[in-house]
Amino acid sequence: MSSHILVLGGTAEARELAAVLAARDGVRVTSSLAGRVTRPGVLDGEVRVGGFGGAEGLASWLREHCADAVVDATHPFAEAITRNAARAAAATGVPLVVLRRPGWRPGPGDRWHPVVSLHAAAELLPRIGRRAFLTTGRLGLAAFAHLADMHFVIRSVEPPEPPVPPDTRVVLARGPFTVAGEKELLTAYRIDVLVTKDSGGAATAAKLSAARELGLPVVVVRRPPLPPELTAVPDVAAVLERLGRAARPTPPDPRGCGAADTCP
Ligand code: NAP
């Protein structure tokens, strides 16, 4: 049986999933990227780039391309696309699997300050330190732009767009990072507080170990909740298991898909 799976991507897990699916006989995989990063790297299978035009646009795409399943493997902080995926799946009857890598957990010696948003992080920050290492991504930096009395080191894959805080040094880098490298960076820039989203995953966790070893406080922005009707699986293996269970017999297809002239 052949099947077409749409992977909503932008994460390492989405890339891994696309590679596994593309290697399977009879599986067509299309990865979807928002188009925020100029050099996203090579992906196995087909790739489409750019927004769908909301939940309705995504639903139309699923119908037009005869998708048999959609996997939301987007970043835990990409709220809008996850909401849209839930609505589009409900509207079309196409099964949806949500992949969310587990969040980080504080261990002994960690000095974490959980907050609900970037704005809450900015409000708390001046009470904790003066020299902050900001690893929350290049979007949303406006929340910190008014903090003129603090020094910021901002690390992102691509240059941040204004507004950013006035006293800012930008470090362009893409993970994975090592604990030794992160300690070196924190020490070299005399950082006294780290700010991060709870993105989870191993590739960017080294900064947390480095902060612990240096005794630095960490402001951790909590993840937005998933829409209540959704539950997530934690890894690619669990997605494959869910997809196996969701696989449906080919004809008859209730969406009228399957004919050569309607399905590319
Ligand atoms: P978002 O706020 O949830 O999405 C905003 C809009 O961007 C969506 O409504 C959708 O436009 C479009 N979009 C988002 N992801 C898409 C995808 N994979 N394929 C096609 N369209 C997509 O998302 P975001 O937080 O800006 O993140 C954008 C992308 O970057 C995501 O794919 C995410 O996996 C990746 N990313 C995000 C973060 C983060 O911290 N937010 C970190 C690392 C990577 P339409 O409504 O027009 O369809």
Tell me, rounded to a whole number, the average pLDDT.
93
> What portion of residues is helical?
25-40%
Total beta-strand segments = 12
Largest sheet: 6 strands, parallel
What are the distinct ligands in this entry? NADP nicotinamide-adenine-dinucleotide phosphate
The CATH class assignment of the largest domain is Alpha Beta
- Strand arrangement, major sheet: 3-2-1-4-5-12
Number of domains: 2
CATH topology of the largest domain: Rossmann fold
- Tell the overall outline: elongated
Structural class: alpha/beta
Based on CA atoms alone, the radius of gyration comes out at 21 Å
Describe it for me?
The chain folds into 2 domains: 3-102 and 224-262, Rossmann fold, CATH 3.40.50; 111-221, Rossmann fold. It is 28% helix and 22% strand. α3 links the parallel β4 (69-72) and β5 (96-99). With 264 residues, it is an alpha/beta fold. The chain has a 6-stranded parallel β-sheet with strand order 3-2-1-4-5-12, sandwiched between helices. The chain has a 6-stranded parallel β-sheet with strand order 6-11-10-7-8-9. The chain binds NADP nicotinamide-adenine-dinucleotide phosphate (NAP).
